[in-house]
Amino acid sequence: MNVIALSGSTVGSKTRTAVEAAASRLKNANPQHDVTVMDLAELQIAFSDGRDYRDYGGDTSRLAEAIMAADALIIGTPVFQASIPGTLKNVFDLLPVNAFRDKTVSIIVTAGSAKHYLVAEQQLKPILSYMKAQIVPTYVFIEEKDFIRDEIINDDIHFRLDRLAEDTLLFAEAYAKIREEKDAAYDF
């Protein structure tokens, strides 16, 4: 299984820390799967201008192709001004509307306070649903107080990241099996 763990911001380090922690758990528990961390802070992503994702070059093409080839994604996002960052929205805008069809997507949100807990529910999940993602129902929300020096210090967050990594694979495997059985029902 091919899994992309995407850190969806060009600034800060907490989201990257959380995404890497989830990806590491996934890799360690399931070394047979290909898990790749991609950080928007390390990529030069073009601004979406309506072209087909295959018409872009460089990092933009590499990111879009990786997402399109993935079986599952872990998307990490910080909350800026009570919303997802524009850089992450730009990634969604680069992709076709069915980009996440038959893909399992799980979510990690980092925020300065508990007041932003529903950003994933009200903003991120509707976009992912519109793009046909199979969304893992629970997500990991991590507050500023759960970090010290770019390290997660809350044991509950560690347990929830373990569960998120496990659920991401379980959901992806279950959906793949359902699709196989459905495809096998046709004689052609």
From TrEMBL:
Pfam families: FMN_red
Record domain NADPH-dependent FMN reductase-like: where: 1-144
SUPFAM superfamilies hit by this protein: Flavoproteins
MF terms in GO: oxidoreductase activity
Keyword annotations from UniProtKB, A to Z: Flavoprotein, FMN, Oxidoreductase
Protein name: FMN reductase
Naturally occurring in which organism (per UniProt): Edaphobacillus lindanitolerans
